[in-house]
């Protein structure tokens, strides 16, 4: 009888010892767990918004500093790797640095925009992956190019000279153009001798001012203003062109200068 009780007590103490050892292991090493991950920003964002499927869109102005932190949980401690849509972020040269899960890009360029992924894995379960899309805003100085056509009827009943002023600028988001003549805004329909349009093949990144059958008032100072509506605090940029009576019938001299 006593032997049976001793066996029960021994079994009880054994279970108690195993449970105590388990608690000590949890306290000293932590419970094994598969990784989780989330991305936070600590840089100079113009705007951060949620897109569908819980992906964040991080908008930043070209030349600013991008800083993204990858926060992970899991035991053992997960290994962290940053990648970009077009390859590993760790393979990018120059102004990119990686430190303890933080991705930092100083003086970011338009070519460094895109989708960035943070991947964490510790050998338990599937890797945890989160992404964020970086949208870099910029606006280049617009450039005016000049074209002239001389159309003469075979019968020589009339002679028409038409000038095309083409304004183009690289930007993100898409640029909006305004033409002025001697500081007066030109709009479609405001002058029968002026036509303003966007070529079908350019998707809005250029705007053409057509001066039909040149008149005296067409010899003036023209300005093309490019704007992205102050997005990210980026100011409008402009370029000027002077059309004067010294321009020949076969060539036009242009002077591009920025405000």
From TrEMBL:
TM region(s), chain numbering: none
Domain named Ig-like: residues: 35-123, 142-242
Lineage: superkingdom: Eukaryota
Extent of the signal sequence: 1-28
Keyword set includes Signal: yes
Alphabetical keyword list: Signal
Signal found in the keyword field: yes
Pfam families, per database record: Ig_3
Protein name: MAM domain-containing glycosylphosphatidylinositol anchor protein 2
Gene coding for it: MDGA2_2
């Amino acid at each position: 009888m006593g032997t049976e009780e001793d066996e029960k007590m021994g079994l009880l103490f054994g279970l108690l010892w195993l449970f105590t050892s388990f608690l000590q292991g949890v306290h000293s090493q932590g419970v094994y767990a598969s990784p989780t991950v989330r991305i936070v920003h600590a840089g100079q964002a113009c705007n951060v918004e949620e897109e569908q499927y819980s992906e964040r869109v991080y908008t930043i102005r070209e030349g600013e500093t991008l800083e993204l932190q990858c926060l992970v949980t899991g035991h053992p401690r997960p290994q962290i790797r940053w990648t970009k849509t077009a390859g590993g972020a760790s393979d990018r040269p120059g102004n990119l640095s990686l430190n303890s899960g933080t991705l930092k890009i100083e003086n970011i360029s338009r070519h460094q925009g895109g989708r960035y992924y943070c991947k964490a894995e510790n050998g338990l379960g599937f890797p945890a992956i989160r992404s964020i899309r970086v949208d870099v805003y910029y606006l280049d100085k617009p450039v005016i190019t000049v074209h002239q056509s001389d159309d003469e009827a075979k019968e020589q009943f009339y002679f028409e000279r038409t000038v095309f002023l083409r304004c183009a600028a690289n930007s993100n988001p898409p640029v909006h153009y305004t033409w002025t003549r001697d500081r007066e805004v030109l709009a479609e329909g405001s002058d029968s001798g002026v036509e303003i349009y966007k070529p079908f093949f350019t998707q809005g990144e250029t705007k053409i001012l057509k001066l039909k059958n040149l008149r005296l008032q067409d010899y003036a100072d023209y300005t093309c203003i490019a704007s992205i509506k102050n997005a990210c605090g980026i100011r409008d940029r402009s370029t000027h062109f002077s059309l004067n009576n010294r321009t020949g019938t076969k060539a036009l001299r242009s002077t591009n200068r920025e405000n």
